[in-house]
Write a structure and sequence with these properties.
The complex is a heterodimer of chains A (about 110) and B (about 110). Chain A is mainly β and about 110 residues long. Helix content of chain A is about 0%, strand content about 55%. By secondary structure, chain B is an all-beta fold. Classes of the chains: A mainly beta (about 110), B mainly beta (about 110). Chains A and B meet through strand 4, strand 5, strand 9 and strand 10 of A and strand 4, strand 5 and strand 9 of B.
């Protein structure tokens, strides 16, 4: 099936620094790219998403960029806080129009 | 309003037994998805229901897995003759028709001994 690659698998930053997580996808038909945050033992929560007609989207400290030509998209978190510590998953929609292909996740640790 | 709910939250079973996992989607959401999350892995799509249409079962890993959705609301994922490799967190999500955003339940953590 089509793949979504996500890097890095783990990321440790100091509070106040920025964190960047990168994903690549292979299905050129993908048009929707959500990012989910999953705290330990909890459900994945959508934090931001982007559609293919937009190159960048920002929501307070979180931003996502998309390069459709290169088939990659990135999550940027600025001024990180300890409560940002979680596993982050990127995803891309498939040619089915509904199922999502997920990356394997990035475990982000923000140390005070 | 209430989010997606799943039960049980944890299930321990013996190899070879059958298990049933339940998902109650957000009211009004006609699309329902099941995913499997193995340790250290991303979410793997299993099955999709949309209204009264035939479900997309393309992600089910074997014929031991089946799912149904009664009355267009609650869904049950059944795993027959469980194997140790079935141990994972099974997540359910729902969405409004035509909307891409999927809302996830808390998952059922399945352990097959």
């Amino acid at each position: 099936g089509e793949n979504v690659e996500q890097h890095p698998s783990t990321l440790s930053v100091q509070e106040g620094d920025s964190a960047v997580i990168k994903c690549t996808y292979s299905d050129s038909a993908s048009n929707y790219f959500p990012w989910y945050k999953q705290e330990l033992g909890k459900r994945p929560q959508l934090i931001i998403d982007i559609r293919s007609n937009v190159g960048e989207k920002k929501d307070q400290r979180i931003a996502v960029t998309l390069n459709k030509t290169a088939k990659h998209f990135s999550l940027h978190i600025t001024e990180t806080q300890p409560e940002d510590s979680a596993v982050y998953f990127c995803a891309a929609d498939t040619n089915s129009g509904y199922a999502l292909n997920f990356g394997k996740g990035t475990s982000l640790l923000v140390t005070p | 309003g209430a989010g997606v709910s799943q039960s049980p939250s944890n299930k321990v079973t013996e190899k070879g037994k059958d298990v049933e996992l339940r998902c109650d989607p957000i009211s009004g959401h006609t699309a329902l998805y099941w995913y499997r999350q193995s340790l250290g892995q991303g979410l793997e799509f299993l099955i999709y229901f949309q209204g009264n249409s035939a479900p997309d079962k393309s992600g089910l890993p074997s014929d031991r897995f089946s799912a149904e959705r009664t009355g267009g609301s609650v869904s049950t994922l059944t795993i027959q003759r469980t194997q140790q490799e079935d141990s994972a967190v099974y997540l359910c999500a729902s969405s409004l028709v035509g909307q891409e955003t999927q809302y996830f339940g808390p998952g059922t953590r399945l352990l097959v001994l």
